[in-house]
Hints:
This protein has helices at about 40-45, 95, 145, 150-160, 175-190, 200-210, 225-230, 245-255, 275-280, 295-305, 320-330, and strands at about 1-10, 10-15, 25-35, 55, 60-70, 80-85, 85-90, 110, 110-115, 120, 125-130, 135, 170-175, 195-200, 215, 235-240, 255-265, 285, 315-320, 340. The protein is an alpha/beta fold. Helix 4 (about 150-160) crosses helix 5 (about 175-190).
Amino acid sequence: MKALVLEKYNTLVYTDVPPPKIKAPDEVLIKVKAVSVCGSDVHGLDGSTGRRIPPIIMGHEGSGVVVDVGKEVRSFKKGDRIVFNSTLFCGKCDFCLHGQINLCDTRKVFGVSCEEYKLDGAFAEYLVVPERILYPIPDTLSHEEAALVEPFSVGFHAVRVAELGISDTVLVIGTGTIGSFIIQSLRLKGAGTIIATDIDADKLQLAQQQGADVTINTKEEDLSTAVKRIAPGGVDIVFDVVGKAQTARAGLQLLKKNGKLVMVGLYDQEISFPIQRITTWQLKVLGTYISSDEYPACIRFLASRRIDVSPFTQHIVPLSQGVEWFKRLRAGERGLYKVIFHPEE
């Protein structure tokens, strides 16, 4: 089969690889119909994340059609349209049994290669996955739209972790794909004033279209000054979707007492915080990791059009052109929010 392989850092190759085969009775062979590029794939290209050690087939945001099933598969059959969870979870540990599959003791993420494991992903024509991580999708949802269930679920999960209060004032730092889905999830969950900040004017315009009440371009305006003008007493929740020390500390300083800083981004590995402020103001720093049991709900939200994914389905291209489109993503091309590949027929 054809696949887009990271053969070495900064070297992607569209080439032939052996097709995967069903080896366990609970496994399903998927014909990949659409797979979107995550920012972590772009960062993984040069080795900066440490989680894409070559050689590896990246890609974890995908949808497809069942083409074969193991003898113990009961819920799916050939021809079924599906999405698959980006995380391979065991389904048996204490976390899995409590619905916290993102915290599974033996979790692995498709398209990731690190010191602990290697698991090829969906930048390929076929993928084999266990039945337990599959979810059916309705005919009203295209495969390209369904490939965005995974990033939407990440944003939706982050809002659930935050335990949003009614009419809370919220600041979202970073308005890329995940930031956009956080904003839309906040609207669904009844947030009050939503403030979005970024250094990209186009992304801020999109954030406003998708539910942000106020936008701040930190290239043109000081973040602290602008937020204090909008919310003099501070904000209830900050979502740091960037994950840099600078953005995390800035967000912490803008919280009101008893506020929450939700760490979504994974850019810097270590960040120092003013502990005295956290303690005396009773602030909370919360981590949120991918998504948990939200896939069925997220599929319904997308299928009912309560979530707008149209800005992220503007660039649907053949997987064979993957090398060129990765270059464009790395270059930060204007208006290029998301790229979705479809393998060759």
